[in-house]
Amino acid sequence: MKSVVADPETRVTCARIETVGGLVFRFAWYPHNLIMSNGEVYITDPFFEPSDVVSEVGLSPSVFDSQAFFDSAGITRNQLLSGVLDNARGYLFETSWAAPVEDEEAIKKTIFGKSRIEDDQYIIESMSLSDPASQSVGTQVSAKCTHTLFDETLDSTTLIATDRSRCTGPRAAPDGPVLADYLVTGTVTGVTSQSVWTDTGRTEDADYFALGSVLWLTGDNSGLRSMSIKDHATGGVFTLQESTFSAIQVGDTYKMIPGCDKKRSGSCVTVYDNAINCVAMEDVVTEEAFNAYGTNGN
To answer: Which domain holds residue 210?
Structure first.
């Protein structure tokens, strides 16, 4: 049973979207804006329409779509295309329009998934936070290490659960590489294109940051998700796997970490001296070779 229930006679539905970068969008299905008891304003948006929400007893995650016109309540086409809403959290709740209270009666907590654009509208799939409970579990045997380097990424300072990644070793007594020891910051000194840029202040050897990632702190790309580095050449020349959404400018600042090739014979040992936590099985035979009876694996 719910501990708090909104007044059924003055019930109104509201939604809040919180992006990874800190932007917050607030909506209310009401004729005019609602001011919550904490002072937050929920914008009336007749063009923001969620599909039906159905709750059942079980572990099957609920999924519903959010559909609206661009700019109708602050969400722009550029924000959707640039990834600002990737992995955003959604909070659907009900309250009373007579005395609105934020998160008074929680309905759903979701994470944003796939999105698509149809003319001047966007449609975003929202998945229940119970979705992980329906995922397959267990350890995978792979030629490359399945752990996430440092057990965290530039997009979050939250450690990944030990049953999903253990690059740094036991949480109580870490014996692997720690992100803070390898994190660097810098400033762009030259730009070739939206995927190639230079920081002449970088003195690391070529390829040190290859397979790593960069997160823009200032400039038109700040607030977006981190991007993978394809190549790191002498002189601090970097090539990204994908082009940035907006143009890189001289003076843009960033933070960056090196990457890992996930091999026991490679970065795991030669760069990070982390053989003890590497789970790469480079000598494991492939399924095709294992099933090739009488052919000596050929």
So the answer is: 138-284
